[in-house]
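#data-curation
PF: Archiving a pair of folding outputs for the training set. Convention for this channel: one message per protein, sequence first, structure tokens after, nothing in between. First:
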Amino acid sequence: MKSFLFHPEAIAEASEAVKFYEEQQEGLGTRFVQALTDTIN
């Protein structure tokens, strides 16, 4: 598997998105993280 480095602002934006989606619907933040992981890998 390749190793990736992400800009700190990109990490912060993704974290905020996870919080936002989780506030909209329980479990949606987790699904968002999984979608990001699937896309990167």
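PF: Second:
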Amino acid sequence: MIDFIRDGFLFMKGGYIKVLNFLAMLGFFLIATGFLIIFYDSDFALSLPILIGFLVFQIILGFVMQLLAARKTKSIYHIFSGALVFVCGLISLLLQFFDDLKFSQVWPLYGFFCGLILLECSWFRHRKVRAEYGIPAFVVIVMSIYYSLFSLKIIKVSLSFISFFVAPVLIVGLTLLLVVFYFLQKKHKELVLDDENSDEFSYEEYLEDD
């Protein structure tokens, strides 16, 4: 009887994983489609109500994905995917109500919130910001702020001109950061992601949470 109940739980969890994997692929497709529609607005020529409906559907999908992931699979991938779909839809929706703002100006904002989502995922799973989340989140947030200075014309210099000189410095800097992190892992084992601190819940943890 116990084995039957256990198999039932595993089957249900496997079903949720398959559903969330499908929803994640659908969500990423909606994100890409939404970007294309907004960026090439004159080519698609969609009416505002249809576009808003499309984005609202994306927002609802992202919210449902986060809810299912947080309650059922506990998968960081599913939580991250749901949050990303939700945030991208929300930013794109708000953009429709500000005629003075264009996608070409606010696109770094998507990357900024992507970094914040990484921090959220780390806090959800570990109740703290771990290095394997914090470092890429920091890089993404800094890069987003950097590019927003040019997209919003705060720095009135050609981005291509600046990138020609700054990009190599950034690449070398990020490489050095990863090297430093590698040696820190050697001295501080708590920075190493082991099996006990993996992002996937074990079967026992899954049953305890339910």
